[in-house]
Amino acid sequence: MVTQLESKVTQSSQCLSETLKMLRTQVLLLFCLARATNAIYKQWIPDTNYENKTNWDKGDVPCGNDRVHFSSQSKVSVFVETMHAVQEILLPINGEFILNPGAGFYVVSGQDPSCGGGVTTNFKDSDSLQWFNPALWQTAATQNDLHQGNFLFSVHEESVPCQNDEVIFKALSSFRSDTSCSQSTIPVKSVSVLGKTFDDRSEFSRYLSSHSGQLQFHGSSAVTVGNPSCEDSTGCVCENSVHHQLICSTVTCASLSCKNPLLPVGHCCEVCGAIITIDYAENFNLQHYRDRIRHLFLILPQYKSIQLGMSKVLKPRPLMRLIPFGTSREIQVVIVDGDMGKLSNTLAQDIIKDAKSHGSELGITKAEIQGSTESNSAMVVGVVFAVLLMIAFIVILVVLNRKGVVQMPAMPSMPSLSLFRRSPDVEDINGDIDCGFDNPMFDGCDMPSALPGLYDSNAISLTRTGVHFINPVYDEQIGSSCSPGTPTCTQKKTQHNTVRLSTNHDIIM
Ligand SMILES: *[C@@H]1O[C@H](CO)[C@@H](O)[C@H](O)[C@H]1NC(C)=O
């Protein structure tokens, strides 16, 4: 007998086979588009599901002989997937059950032989679980990867949803997350709750003020959706550094065994491993490069224990000739192996080798390694691929020209070759190359007075004629992740009954 239960039944329209087909192609299309814009998915791990035994203080889901207690003060939205036998339930004053179709409670008369002697089991409190705790999120590049458990490693700041991210709360589950922080809003691209994706700001704000919304999201700040996705194929900076202290307050750093631990940008703890810092050109594609590293190296058995995170970060700039202070956007690759960092260093060298031979088609202009295995302070290996390529190209051209094999076309302002006879000053040329790729961070390009006359734009155009092709392997890869069978009709599943409990310790008997 259930007393004073206000029940609300929300039913979404049924997916008919015809509309399902249409929806499928639309979902497919959306999926491909999302993929093209470097989308990142962040999924909240904990749930407040009745069936999850970690939510019960006895470590087990209560059965027919057990008494089930929810603390009267607990504000919780509990998802119930199936039918459960109980002896009694003590309900909270303010809470709700979200019942999956077919879910519910019943009381067994007498003893349930498949259940133990009968205990009192309490539902654990989830008030303390914070949105800004990086341990409570999983990151993946696609929704399919989320389902298959292909998670991405990221630095602590980026483990928490960034402003361009798609936030997922698992479809058949409920949750409770404390969104308190120093800002009034937490902007993200979209939020999925119970299989429904919100990307309209006002619609989600209505959801937040609903009964379910208030139980699921609590705290001083409001999550807002509708932020654009990352449109820059070279990647977007996760602007969570404003929350650095809050994020790191939830993290306990492990003790390290290596000589020179490294501190990656955006991470709370020093790590034993390697960091590669990459300067990129406009044809760099973060998503493709991440896939490339995964398929070339991370799937190899010797790199099984490796964790690799790759993202665009704002790196503080050391004193330089033209721009004394500020930050630059760089791709940071963090490699951790859970040991002394030796394996990370081997992988980092492999990645550098690959970048050296494919730098120009990958859009990599420079890469540096920092390793934690060296005994002296972090070794820096600068590799200037584009420069080498350009020098080689010019040298060949000059040699062929001298031998009369190739007639040089009339180039009005070909730079004096004495520049290259003079010992090639890598640093100087490097600055020039970066300008050639239109790197916005090298503001020097906009100041003609800062460039010596020798750095003629014709010299740059030579590098621009360099190798440029699209690797078919990675195109195929995009194709395959858009293959049929990956997206599902999630609308189908959102048929739940919400039972709202505005009762004072009601007892179901
Ligand atoms: C149960 O909850 C734990 C911790 O909150 C989570 O890691 C786990 O994935 C959940 N189990 C299932 C089956 O969802």
TrEMBL record:
The keyword Transmembrane helix applies. The chain crosses the membrane at residues 378-400. The keyword Metal-binding does not apply. Pfam families: Amnionless. GO terms for cellular component: apical plasma membrane; endocytic vesicle. It comes from the Eukaryota. It is found in: Cell membrane. It is a single-pass type I membrane protein. Keywords: Cell membrane, Membrane, Protein transport, Signal, Transmembrane, Transmembrane helix, Transport. One of its GO terms (biological process) is protein transport. This is Protein amnionless. It comes from Nothobranchius furzeri (Turquoise killifish).
